[in-house]
Amino acid sequence: MVATPFTIEKKDQSKSLVAMLCFVVAIGLAIAGFPISMAFFTGAMAMVLLRVLSIQEAYQSIEWKVVFLLAGIIPLGLAMQKTGTATFLAENVMSLIQGTHPIFLVITVAVLSTIFSLFMSNVGAIVVLAPLVIGMATIGGLDPRPLALMAAVCAANSFVLPTHQVNALLMSAGGYRNADYFKAGGGMTLIFLAVVVTVFYFFYL
Hints:
Elements: H1 16-31, H2 36-49, H3 55-60, H4 64-82, H5 85-97, H6 102-117, H7 122-139, H8 144-154, H9 165-174, H10 178-203
Helix pairs in contact: 1-2, 4-9, 5-6, 5-7, 6-7, 6-8, 6-10, 7-8, 8-10
């Protein structure tokens, strides 16, 4: 029993098989090596052309908040790369832990990768951090390959802010705020860092 009344949206199942076919084709294109964005855009266009959705319904389903959020993040990340801001911050942080115990270098790389992934793309974060990580590992007498790999893994540690595409897509639908992501993702971020640092320090270095 529910405390408040609610309405159930009626589903038109006449185009279910066509919609499923379009979805399978999009997945197939992505698996075949086509860019994911183009693969699923092709599937979406097929649904419009095959009248699964009208162009108005497709337009209304676009989350414009997410579009503008990602449109703002991309140039922000590019600006941090092009102006050297990201490199400047990473170099200064790295200089503070130079000559200390290797565990501090591992923790620093993990934290920097996590922070950078909140403001720029995963690829952009690794492009900035990889040369610095390799240089610091060489100075510290460590194998740079595990540290570079760890930086790539930690670039996916995006739970604190809705800046990652998946988090952003759920923001409007669930009515979430930035504080909600921080509450739910703060603990996840710390657990992620603890597990990754432990595994790489004890099994790869």
